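INTERNAL AUDIT FORM
Audit reference: QA-55
Scope: verify that the stored structure record matches its stored sequence.
Auditor: D.O.
Record contents follow.
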Amino acid sequence: MTASQARLRIRQLAAVALVASVVTPVFNVLTSAPTLAEAIHGVVDAVLISLLVGGYLIFVRDGWLRGWFRRLGFVVYLALSSASVLALFLVGRALGQVATTLDPSRFVKSFGDRHLVYALPFFAVVAVAVIVILQMNRMIGTNVLRYFVAGVYHRPQLEPRVFLFLDLVGSTQLAERLGSGRYFELLRRFVDDLTAPILDADGEIYQYAGDEVVVTWPLAAGVRSANCVRCFFAIRDAIARGAARYRRDFGVVPGFRGGLHAGAVTAGELGDLRQQIVFVGDILNTAARLQDYARRMSLDLVGSPEPCWSASSCRPVARRGRAARWISAAKRSA
């Protein structure tokens, strides 16, 4: 786990603890006694249980042991996760009673506490809500969930963005050679290895399209310290560091090429049965064309010289339906 991934998970854990620290004192006052002591007890419980349960979910189940949990069947996965979460809840609650009463004997006595009749269903509801939100975060992206909650794109709006299109080299041949199952595992590992470099460069994964990954930045974030360009080469370095593992498991180290472009797009929420935030504009088409040009010319990264970067060579490229324009073609020396 890289520093950027750790920071993201710490922020998630802090958010869980903050929400629990607001809700749990109210629950204690309503179901136990309307006293300050019960409210304080609720805050202590919330912090301890959040650190244990949230830490397990964010850092262990979805972090260090994510690969191992992926290999479990659904029933085993659900049973193990539920048992772990319940045990950590009971331990956290017991520690909370010890901390608030300064009586070590409360640790064991807490397991027979009558208040568990209320506390267990309450915890189950909160835990399910937290797990669903964390899973949504993983499925649609942290920033995307925040956009939905804040209603940022409830009405379509024009905004400047940078887009980086990444595509695996020789994906068709790889799929034929490895078979669909092993090829999918290769693609999954490749996408996992993208995560840290994209986070380090303040980027967001916009979408996966087969063997293609689209990364985006608000313009200011993308051009700051040339994040959008550094991201490409940081991803290549990450793949190179895992080269031995790729060769061992798949017999090949995946290569990829990119197309980079920036400009104004229209962004908004789209869909009814399945809603998502969509970016529309010629900018995306251009980035895709530049990626295709990189593929045809065997270049690593091709991007327009606007707005933010320089590269080793420039040449005019005719794009379908558009006049020829200057683009930059970059090798590792860029």
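Auditor finding: record pair retrieved intact. The longest strand covers residues 256-270.
Action required: none
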